[in-house]
Automatic annotation (TrEMBL):
Keywords: ATP-binding, Cell inner membrane, Cell membrane, Kinase, Membrane, Nucleotide-binding, Transferase, Transmembrane, Transmembrane helix, Ubiquinone, Ubiquinone biosynthesis. The active site is at residue 285. InterPro entries: ABC1_dom, Kinase-like_dom_sf, UbiB, UbiB_bact, UbiB_kinase. This is Probable protein kinase UbiB. It comes from the Bacteria. The lineage of its organism: Bacteria, Pseudomonadati, Pseudomonadota, Gammaproteobacteria, Oceanospirillales. Its EC number is 2.7.-.-.
Length: 547
């Protein structure tokens, strides 16, 4: 708790130090926050010299890797940011301040248990690039291959642990104090992010992710994934093939190479949807610092992806729901969008579909008045999210990475080609995928997938058939016994109905005997007592002894 409090104080200090109050809409805050924060930010106001974008970048760098990641995501949304701010945040992608080369060498030697001179023919102590979690150095193997060596920052796990602890504290506060706390599910979102970023600290996992992504796009003309050198990779060190390409954010260099920017932007969208729907395994950290372009064929440029630390996946239910939702939105079928939200559990089951449909239409229909290429998918999501508040729509943690990646792709695609029509590019792919899910190709694929299991079960089929028939036989015997019991019960009931008048008379006789008998005359028996005893005896006979 003290660690989180200290970290929060540091964040507040950073806000004041770099005058980030310029980004806060003070007029929208409650009066007590507006005046207290305004007075707080008077400190050092005269010493402000840097522009807003530079102050924001420096503040994020000083706060550490989690905040740098946030800046990296923001840097791809030039449609939402001013150019000066986007340009500054773009520097976070691979120009985070580096740590000394001799420390990197010590980490390499400790993890790989050999001197750098034995591991590599050449090794550059000056980093090629430095990011929030790790930095890379160029090297050459003794066999002659050019490689890059990725090294985790020293002490980064402790820093991230503090930030995660603070995020949990803030998430619990939001969940308890905010009216939207339950719907936003902040604790689950932080848990999902913690799992993701801790995976990024393990380069052995990143190497495994890289290997799978490489197999998924083997011989592809869309995406190339560098080769991993497994003998030189460990938890804190990873050695990978050195690639040559133009950084995707270097628009001037791409134009100089005569790259078809429209084709490049559309291929980026196709790669994303292929990963999500065909492979169920997608690169979830596709900021420009992790993407290069092979311009050997400028008319058909090929992407090169690096840094596979953060990967996402969806199950079949999530994929089907997402595809059907997107297609319904493309077709402006707001009724279907509303029904899918209820069906998937995003909104409570009792939500009035017609009211939800009307709310979605009010947000989306004005957007469709513009050309599709001018519609921002990110703005659509934000609008839908805000509209759904009154319907108690909850955040789905399993889709957070997907949504973030889709926003990155849209921002990057429009940076490359401002007239990119995400809808036209995505719709044919989604329609084709949906057809494949219900067509003969899907049936054949399922048969091929299940065939090995069926082959293993084939020798057991005779025993399974015998056991099934035996169970059916025993079940028939039980049914026959139950039938006989029911028939016997029926006979007893019918017999009981025949004797019902006698039973009734027996009850009347017992009642009459009780009424006639006077306990005060037991010492002096008279004719009335003989009559009552006779009635009592007849009642017993009719009620109990009469068959």
């Amino acid at each position: 708790m003290f660690t989180s409090a200290f970290r929060l104080i540091r964040i507040l200090y950073t806000v004041v130090r770099f005058r980030l109050d310029a980004f806060i809409p003070l007029k929208a805050l409650p009066w007590y926050l507006r005046y207290s924060l305004g007075l707080f930010c008077l400190v050092g106001r005269k010493r402000v010299q840097k522009n807003k974008g530079e102050r924001l970048r420096l503040a994020l760098e000083s706060l550490g890797p989690i905040f740098v990641k946030f800046g990296q995501i923001l840097s791809t949304r030039r449609d939402l940011l001013d150019d000066d701010i986007a340009d500054e945040l773009a520097r976070l992608q691979d120009r985070v301040p580096a740590f000394p080369g001799h420390i990197a060498q010590a980490i390499i030697e400790r993890d790989l248990k050999a001197p750098v001179s034995e591991l590599f023919a050449e090794f550059s102590s000056s980093p090629l690039a430095s990011a929030s979690i790790a930095q890379v150095h160029t090297a050459t193997l003794h066999s002659g291959e050019a490689v890059v060596v990725k090294v985790i920052r020293p002490g980064i796990e402790k820093t991230i642990g503090k930030d995660i602890s603070l995020l949990y504290t803030l998430a619990h506060l939001v969940a308890k104090l905010s009216a939207d706390g339950r719907r936003l599910r902040p604790v689950e979102v932080v848990t999902d992010y913690e799992y993701t970023i801790l995976d990024e600290l393990d380069l052995a996992k990143e190497a495994g992710n890289t290997g799978l992504l490489q197999r998924n796009f083997i011989n592809s003309n869309l995406l190339y994934v560098p080769q991993i050198y497994w003998d030189y990779s460990h938890r804190n060190v990873m050695v990978v093939e050195r690639i040559s390409g133009i950084p995707v954010a270097d628009i001037a260099a791409l134009n100089k190479a005569n790259v078809d920017m429209k084709c490049l932007a559309e291929r980026g969208v196709e790669i994303f949807f292929t990963q999500v729907f065909s492979h169920s395994f997608f690169h979830a950290d596709m900021h420009p610092g992790n993407i290069f372009v092979d311009v050997s064929n400028p008319a058909k440029p090929k992407y090169i992806a690096i840094d596979c630390a953060i990967m996402g996946s969806l199950d079949e239910a999530d994929k089907s729901y997402l595809a059907r939702n997107l297609l319904a939105f493309f077709q402006r079928d707001y009724r279907m969008v509303a029904e899918l939200h209820v069906e998937s559990g995003w909104v409570p089951k009792g939500t009035p579909v017609h009211a939800f449909e009307s709310a979605i239409r009010s947000v989306c229909e004005p957007m469709f008045a513009k050309p599709l290429k001018d519609i921002s998918f990110g703005q659509v999501l934000i609008g839908l999210f805000q509209t759904a508040r009154r319907f108690n729509m909850e955040v789905q943690p399993q889709l957070v990475l997907l949504e973030k990646t889709l926003l990155n792709i849209e921002g990057l695609g429009r940076q490359l080609y401002p007239d990119l029509d995400l809808w036209v590019t995505a719709k044919p792919f989604l329609e084709r995928w949906m057809q494949e899910q219900v067509g003969p190709k899907r049936v054949i694929e399922e048969v091929r997938k299940q065939a090995p299991q069926w082959a293993g079960q084939l020798p057991q089929i005779p025993n399974l058939v015998f056991n099934a028939l035996s169970q059916i036989s025993h079940q028939n015997e039980r049914i026959e016994a139950q039938t006989k019991s029911i028939q016997q019960l029926g006979k007893e009931l019918r017999k009981g109905r025949k004797n019902l008048p006698f039973r009734f008379m027996g009850v009347l006789s017992l009642g009459a005997a009780w009424i006639i008998t006077d306990p005060m005359l037991l010492d002096n028996i008279k004719a009335t007592d003989i009559t009552s005893l006779s009635l009592f005896a007849v009642g017993i006979y009719l009620l109990v002894l009469k068959p």
